[in-house]
Design brief:
It contains 15 helices and 21 strands. Helix 14 (about 320-335) links the parallel strand 15 (about 305-315) and strand 16. The radius of gyration is 23 Å and the shape is globular. It folds into 4 domains: about 5-125, Methylthiotransferase, N-terminal domain (Rossmann fold, 3-Layer(aba) Sandwich), CATH 3.40.50.12160; about 150-265, 2-Layer Sandwich (Transcription Regulator spoIIAA), CATH 3.30.750; about 300-380, Transcription Regulator spoIIAA (2-Layer Sandwich), CATH 3.30.750; about 390-440, Nucleic acid-binding proteins (OB fold (Dihydrolipoamide Acetyltransferase, E2P), Beta Barrel). It is of the alpha/beta class. The strands form 6 sheets. It has a 6-stranded parallel sheet. It has a 5-stranded mixed beta barrel with strand order 17-18-19-21-20. Bound molecules: 5'-deoxyadenosine and iron/sulfur cluster. The site of 5'-deoxyadenosine (5AD) has 11 residues, from strand 15.
Length: about 450
């Protein structure tokens, strides 16, 4: 029997990339690869890159430089660059780093095995097309290490990719392309497969997931219909989705938060800024008042829902007054959790052409925003103390005898528990709140 070849995948960025990496591992399984957790003895290294953060491409070039000694030691080592940096840079990657063997964009992963087989043939292996054929039709299911390999209790499932919104700061519409939804039947089949492997929670992924409009029996289904259908799978206990645009929160999706018990009371709904002037400059296509009204309607459907968001400070043209509007919006919403970033220009996006806010000012605004957001996060966490919450146990915790899981509101919760309880939902009494987690004990 031939020794399996070893594949090391380094994943950057969002959950979508985590999902894609799993798919690529499965796809390359057909080429005789098994995954390894170190690049040192790998036969192939694949960087699954993200372009959303600052200097993303530079970081990838520097990481590739670090693999130089490995390539020198083992000239057969194959090196591939996938993901959004691959999409944005294309051939340039091989020009700047000739030791890279192949470059593959997010819509072309199903061609990866074929490309891998051609390494060494002299052909330029760069595929950043947005092909008409559906990559999901060609990629094997995740968890392909043997039939019915068990999976962790919580899994991602990509239902939609790309984005047509063109926010003026964002590269996603360029790197991931136009918005595409997978057909309902494909998603249900994948969900059933996941559940048969021990998954009890599915997080539906998409760059603009609530724009989902998948085909079902000749009609188009929205995300709410998809969620209701998935909820019929008995052993599936929890459904989440991320990330959403406010303008795609349809009435039936809002209502689903009140109607569907399996849909978790947590919603990541980025607003980015609280000033109408900046929202307009960002091309977000809604006002702060419209967003607040939407939040109000969501809370009417599900009063205890935990809200989460993304913020950008120091967008071109943002004055102190505009920034104050962002703080005010946060005070009104009181997010349970939020992510905040300093604006940084992405080449090729409209905002990159505009005059940037002073760097020190950006840092100062970010610090003030984060102080407020973390105050709200702490208040929300503390409001859980003394309550008994259902927690899905996912993995061993840091301390011996401890397990860690998630509350319905996506808090990390740790408690003493037997490892055999992994994948079960226990009733946990919250004892105290820590910085980024809750400590609890199992009751009953
Ligand atoms: N600068 C700063 N933050 C950005 N994001 C996206 N593009 C940029 C940028 N150019 C943030 C947004 C988005 C999150 C995923 O990353 O807040 O919601
Ligand atoms: Fe980027 Fe999200 Fe705006 Fe789409 S909706 S352009 S993914 S920030």
């Amino acid at each position: 029997m031939t020794e399996p070849k070893k594949l090391f995948v380094k994943t950057y960025g969002c959950q979508m990339n985590v999902y894609d990496s799993e798919r690529m591992v499965s796809a390359l399984g057909g080429q005789g690869y098994v995954e390894t957790d170190t690049p040192d003895d790998a036969d192939m290294i694949l960087l699954n890159t993200c372009h959303i953060r600052e200097k993303a491409a530079e970081k990838i070039y520097s990481q590739l430089g670090q693999y130089r000694p490995l390539k020198n030691k083992k000239p057969d080592l194959k090196i591939g660059v996938a993901g959004c940096v691959a999409q944005a840079e294309g051939e340039e990657i091989i020009k700047r780093q000739p030791m890279v063997d192949l470059v593959v964009g997010p819509q072309a992963y199903h061609r990866l095995p074929e490309m891998e087989a051609k390494v060494g043939s002299g052909e330029l292996l760069v595929d950043t097309e947005f092909p008409i054929e559906d990559k999901f039709d060609h990629l094997p299911k995740t968890g392909g290490r043997g039939p019915k390999a068990r999976r962790a209790p919580s899994a991602f499932l990509t239902v939609q990719e790309g984005c047509d919104k063109f926010c003026h700061f964002c590269v996603v519409p360029y790197t991931r392309g136009a918005e595409v939804s997978r057909p309902v039947s494909q998603i249900i089949a994948e969900a059933e497969d996941l559940v048969s492997r021990g998954v009890v929670e599915i997080n539906l992924l998409g760059q603009n997931v609530n724009a989902y409009h998948g085909e079902h029996g000749g009609k188009e289904w929205g995300l709410a219909q998809l969620i209701h259908e998935l909820a019929k799978i008995d052993e599936l206990k929890r459904i989440r989705f991320t990330t959403s645009h406010p303008n795609d929160m349809s009435e039936d999706l809002i209502a689903a938060h009140g109607e569907c018990e399996k849909l978790m009371p947590y919603l990541h709904l980025p607003v980015q800024a609280g000033s109408d002037k900046i929202l307009k400059a960002m091309n977000r296509k809604h006002t702060a008042a419209e967003y607040l009204d939407l939040i109000e309607r969501i809370r009417q459907a599900r009063p205890d829902i935990a809200l989460s968001g993304d913020f950008i400070v120091g967008f071109p043209g943002e004055s102190e007054e505009d920034f104050q509007d962002t703080l005010e919006l946060c005070r009104q919403v009181r997010y349970g959790q939020a992510f905040s970033f300093k604006y940084s220009p992405r080449p090729g996006t409209p905002a990159a052409e505009r005059a940037d806010v002073d760097e020190a000012e950006k840092s100062d605004r970010l610090a003030r925003l984060q102080a407020l957001l973390s105050e709200h996060q702490m208040d929300f966490q503390k409001s859980m103390v003394g309550k008994t919450l259902p927690v899905l146990l996912e993995k061993p915790g840091r301390m011996d005898g401890q397990m860690i899981g998630k509350s319905e509101f996506l808090h990390a919760v740790h408690m003493d528990a037997d490892p055999s309880l992994v994948g079960t939902i226990v009733q946990a009494k919250i004892l105290h709140s820590e910085r980024n987690s809750l400590a609890a004990e199992i009751v009953g």
